[in-house]
Amino acid sequence: MKFSKVFKGGMVAAMAMSLVACSSNSTTSAKSTSASAEAFKIGGSGPLSGDAAVYGNAVKNGAELAVKEINAKGKVQLEFKYEDDQADGEKAATAYNTLADWGMQASIGATTSGAGQAVSPLYQQDDIFAITPSGSSPAVIYQNADNESDPYGNVFQMCFTDPNQGVASADYISENKVGTKVGVIYRNDDNYSTGIFNKFKTEAKKLGLDVVAEQGFANGTTDYSVYVKKCKDAGADVVFLPIYYQPASQILAEAKKQGYETKFFGCDGMDGILDMEGFDTSLAEGLYMLTPFSADAEDELTQNFVKNYKEAYGDTPIQFAADAYDCVYAIAQALEESGVRASDATSDITAALEKEFTSMTFNGLTGSDVTWNANGEVSKAPKAVVIQNGAYVSAE
Amino acid sequence: MKLVKSLFGPKTRGRSISFALVIVAYIVISILQSAGSIPRMISSLLVPVCCYIVAAIGLNMNVGISGELNLGQAGFMSVGGFSAAITNAVLLNTVSNDFVRLLICIVIGALIAGFVGWLISIPVLKLEGDYLAIVTLAFGQIIMSLMNNLYVGFDADGIHFGFINNTMQLGEGGKMIVSGPMGVTGNKMISTFTVGFILILISLLVVYNIIYSKEGRAIQACRDNKIAAETIGIKVSSTKTLAFVVSSALGGAAGALYMMNYSSVAATKFDFNTSILILVYVVLGGLGNMTGTLISTSVLVLLPEMLRFLSSYRMLVYAIVLIVMMIVTNNEQIKTFFEKFKKQKGVQAHE
Amino acid sequence: MAFLSYLIGGLGLGSVYAIIALGYSMVYGIAKMLNFAHGDVIMVGAFVAYFALSSFGLPTIVALILSVVACTVLGIVVEKLAYKPLRGASSLSVLITAIGVSYFLQNAAMLMWGTDTKIFPTILEGTLTIGELSIPYLTLLTILSCIVIMVVLTMFINKTKTGRAMRACSEDKGAASLMGINVNQIISITFAIGSGLAAIAAVLLCATYPSVYPTLGSMPGIKAFTAAVLGGIGSIPGAFLGGLLLGVIENLARAYISTQLSDAIVFMVLIVILLIKPTGLLGKKVNVKV
Question: Which residue of A has its CA nearest to B267?
């Protein structure tokens, strides 16, 4: 046991050294700031390891692609740094501070809502502008999330808030008579999923839709047979899935196994299901979803993006990548229109970005004529699509 | 006087080293911080490090001193953290001093977690070994699952609770404190490094006072040989309960401090992985060795952040470092090598 | 009828837990360590089978064999590199090392195979219909495999020379080595068998629940650990029974009590059972002497 003390002495020394090393690091990076004063420093964080790593990687790739393209155009120059936060509030705060040490001037925020909720106060405290691609919880932009008041003011969203998606989904199902008896399978330990579900339920009640089954599953669930069977037994003629595409793919497979023929309806998290490696796309036949982005869209912007993304990273981009791509373009547009320079004080850049974002109109992958209100909430038209013959078709 | 004596008595060298280490570290970091030479990335980790240290000291009491493998320490952090968040929101307008309110939150967090710990200890301590471990794991999971479905709101009429579905209608000026899977939102951040430092000192004081007391010796006797301890008249169950309750109360205090450092924390933060992480700090620092816990926790919390330059290889390298550290610290040859070295040094010191 | 189908679904899920739990329990019985990396061995097995099936289009049985071989090798390598140097160290040190191995495997998988979820190909379709009841063949296959594995393993442990050596090691390693048993070799064999079983579990798990991703093994790993303890850790029939019971309770709790709280209910039942039987359902009560 005595050895351990010596060893620990070594550890203390190592710790002290790393502290020193780290502080010297930050000073060198401070110097390099002044050297390349022309480029704006854009930060961002998201899960690059852990359970949710697929979203962080998509955002990182989408944003990097946008930065490359914008820099090649030669108008606004951007420097981009994306830190791992493991979709965790504590890690996100550290990632944020790493970025702050680096000299971040604007940001694409945190990728996931949980992390976003924890860093939004930090962005406000330091007065740095952020627009999150996918942190869709109202708590990311509002200090008082339940009645959506006290906005942070400098934190914006590129995606719809979860409650908005819930309302839009109920409206769509009711207006287009997709079904009358609704079964819901949602993830009850997830912010995104319960956020959509709760609002959906209230709205559905208002519209006279009958919610016949509500099933919550937890992260790490492997067996979905009970959830599907309960919807089937309740006679739901439409099953609402406010969840991500990975569990959804399993639910669709399970429904087929049980011979359950119904309509399925998803939100933006469903995008990506057709591009899962090994997924039998016939399972998703007739699946409705409200999504601002589809990789199959035929407009030039989307097609170019998908082509370049595939070339650079080998995958088909999911909605997260598209949202991140749009975030960077929106920031670049705002920077360009406002005429601020990278050498200006961060608070001036933030003020300029806030002003531009609340007044400009943006056209991107995830929507055209996109605008933001002063709270940071986005306004764009949700697109309903339905999957036919393994491809998205507009449902309108 | 008694305290001073007990701090530097021959039996308590470990204790004085712990205190000295914490105090020196605090002074050095405070000086560096006021000189502005600590990057923000590090300074933002100071409070979490303090939290993990306190939770790990508590767990070491349980695993090291009392010899019961506990895989649910994060559950107690969760209980402490959520109670503290509720307390913080309720007292926001009545107690305006942040420091006082933080202390109240921590005390309440510790008390409630200690109480839950006591409740849980009743069934848990009927079991032994890995069966005991799995039940602590089970309680950790149950606590997480319950917290994930908990809704707490606060308005002029007082506190409202909801479960699974949020059905509450809050009055004018009402505010949700805990909203299910979203966890605590809009929490006012009041934790400071100084409070973290004080909390570490207090927990060390508590733990050492127990270790060097009659009860502490009884606890260790039960760990080393239950039957022998029983035969000399030690009441095994009550001594073990003491260790378990202290451990969970410290976990609760740690959770409270942690919660107060962030505006939003979800229940899933305190999952099995967090429990395991704290256990890693304890085992790497050495069972029953509080100084070791202090150091290993600081190193292991900072390590993944230090490895950020490796980008995507970061967690891979962290895993390798962890394995290598375990192998090295347990290697007989290296152990004996250092022991020899140590002995020589000891001899020189005597001369 | 609904009850029966929930029950059978639960048995299918439970069989997967049971196969994983068998690996857990064997390793625990011999090496006295909680191998928290066991779940991640399953993940590796799933990826190997996935690539064999969908990238190379190999037949299922070849994919299964490849996966078993890969996991067996992995099990032995991990044992030699990470656990063997810790022989003689406290069981907690080994536990922490196992956690390190678990982190390592997960992150290595993420770097090598990406973080996106892949869909495991269908290996067996169709359902057996008896009256109103319809049971997928896959569920039957899973339950059947589990029973076969349990029987073979029990016979192996009780009848063969290696099996006897294993039992000897689990009783007393020192005495076993004095009797001329190569303890290190036996431990390696145990890890090999446990990891091979993990590969079979992986294929069955992913055939039923077709998602393959780097953290796939953690939750089934914890559940299987729970099952092993529930049945009495170290006991092979115990792991079997514990696994089945866990699967059934989980499914019935979801069907009849609450889907949101099914995990909490499973663990609650575990606690109650352990209070009644403190060493699990079929665990041996070890008498401690002073």
Answer: A189
Q: Given pLDDT bands bounded at 50, 70 and 90, which one contains residue C134? A: confident
- Write the pLDDT tens digit of every residue in C212-250: 999 898 888 888 989 998 898 888 899 999 999 999 999
- Say how far apart CA A201 and CA A207 lie, in whole Å: 10
DSSP A336-349: HHHT--TTS-HHHH
Q: Is the pLDDT of residue B336 over 80?
A: no
Query: Which residues from B are below 8 Å from C261, CB to CB?
Result: 145-146, 149, 164
C159 versus A384: the higher-pLDDT residue is C159
CA–CA distance, C196 with C190 (Å, rounded to integer): 10
Which residues have CB under 8 Å from B268's CB, separation 6+? Answer: A114, A189, A219, B144, B148, B181, B183
Record: contact C211-A249, CB cut-off 8 A = yes
Contact A191 B41 (CB under 8 A): no
Which among C150, C125, C151 has a CA at the least distance from the CA of C140?
Answer: C125
Backbone angles phi, psi at A105, to 5 degrees: -110, -25
In contact, A117 and B157? CB cutoff 8 Å? no
Question: What does each C-alpha distance from C87 to A7, A344, B79, C27 come to in angstroms?
Answer: 21, 61, 37, 14
Question: Are C270 and B135 spatial neighbours (Cβ–Cβ below 8 Å)?
Answer: yes
Shortest CA gap C118–chain A (Å)? 5
Residue among C96, C275, C278 whose CB faces B326 most closely = C96
Whole-complex ipTM? 0.88
Encoded amino acid at C31, one letter:
A
Is C118 in contact with A276 (Cβ distance < 8 A)? yes
**Cβ atoms of B76 and B61 closer than 8 Å:** no
Give the global pTM.
0.88
Quick one: closest CA in B to C283, which residue? B131
Strands A129-132 and A263-266: unpaired
Largest CA distance in chain B: 76
| Phi, psi of A184, deg, nearest 5 | -125, 130
Any A CB within 8 A of B259 CB: no
Average pLDDT of the segment spanning A100-113: 93
* Of B109, B110, B68, B21, nearest in space to B244 by CA: B68
Write out chain B residues lying below 8 Å of C271, CB-based: 123, 135, 138-139
Q: Around A84, how many Cα atoms within 13 Å sit in the side-chain half-sphere?
A: 20
Phi/psi at A103 (nearest 5 deg)? 100, 35
Over residues A38-80, the pLDDT tens digits come to: 899 999 999 998 878 888 999 999 999 999 999 999 889 999 9
The tokens for C252 are 């019935």
Rounded Cα gap, residues B63 and B278, in angstroms: 11
More confident residue, C34 or B349: C34
DSSP secondary structure letters along chain C: -HHHHHHHHHHHHHHHHHHHHHHHHHHHHHH----TTHHHHHHHHHHHHHIIIIIS---HHHHHHHHHHHHHHHHHHHIIIIIGGGTTS-HHHHHHHHHHHHHHHHHHHHHHH-SS-EEPPP----EEEETTEEEEHHHHHHHHHHHHHHHHHHHHHHHSHHHHHHHHHHH-HHHHHHTT--HHHHHHHHHHHHHHHHHHHHHHHHHHS-EE-TTTTHHHHHHHHHHHHHH-TT-HHHHHHHHHHHHHHHHHIIIII-STTHHHHHHHHHHHHHHHSTT-SSPPPPPP--
Give per-residue pLDDT as tens, A255-266: 988 889 899 999
Q: Which residues pair with A277 in a beta bridge?
A: C118
Asked if C132 contacts C1 with a C-beta cutoff of 8 angstroms, the reply is yes
Whether C102 and chain A come into contact, CB under 8 Å, resolves to: no
Structure tokens at B105: 């939150």
> Any chain C CB within 8 A of the CB of A235?
no
Q: B110 with B80: CB under 8 angstroms?
A: yes
